[in-house]
Amino acid sequence: MQLTHIDQQGHAAMVDVADKPITVREAKAQACVEMKPETLKLVMENQLKKGDVLGVARIAGIQAAKKTADLIPLCHPLALSKVSVDFEVDQANAQIWVFSYCKLAGQTGVEMEALAAASIASLTIIDMCKAVDQDMVITALCVTHKSGGKRGTYQRHKIGEDNE
C-alpha cells in the first residue's frame, strides 16, 4: 500500500480528488475522557463554574469538524451535510465517552472530521473541568466506522467492548 499524501519526489502533497466519483460518505469516531468520580458528579449535576460541560463540548466538536481543513494541512475543505456529537456516561468507571458522526456527499472521506470532532469535544470537557481535576486523561480516540468511497465500509467495535 502506498501513502496518498506523498508525491513522486517524497514531498507532502494534497491528494487530487477531482476524478473520484461523488458518493455518500460517513464516518464515526470515539474518544474517552477519564476523570475522578467527584468530577463526573459535578459534570452530571451541572455544578461547574464554566457551565454546561457536555453542551459546550457538543458545540465545540461540531465546530471542529467544520474547521478540520484549517487544522490539518492536507485535508480538503468539505461541505459537511451532517455532524453530530453524543456522549455516554460511564459512572462506574468515571468516564465520558464521546461519539462523533460526520456525513457528506463528496469525493473524499470524512474520517478526519469525525476524529477532530471527538478530539475537540474531549479537550473541551478537560478545559471546562480542569479547575477541579488535573488528572483527566483522553483515551481510545479512533475511527469506529467509515463508509463510502473506493475502500467501502470499515467497522470497529468500541474499545473495551467485547468483540464476540
Automatic annotation (TrEMBL):
EC numbers, comma separated: 4.6.1.17
Domain Molybdopterin cofactor biosynthesis C (MoaC): 14-149
Gene Ontology molecular functions: cyclic pyranopterin monophosphate synthase activity
GO term, biological process aspect, one: Mo-molybdopterin cofactor biosynthetic process
EC class of the enzyme, as a word: lyase
Signal sequence interval, chain numbering: none
Name the record gives this protein: Cyclic pyranopterin monophosphate synthase
Active site positions: 127
NCBIfam families attached to this UniProt entry: moaC (TIGR00581), PRK09364.1 (NF006870)
The keyword Lyase is annotated on this UniProt entry: yes
Organism: Pseudoalteromonas ulvae
Lineage top rank: taxon: Bacteria
UniProt-annotated binding residues for substrate: 74-76, 112-113
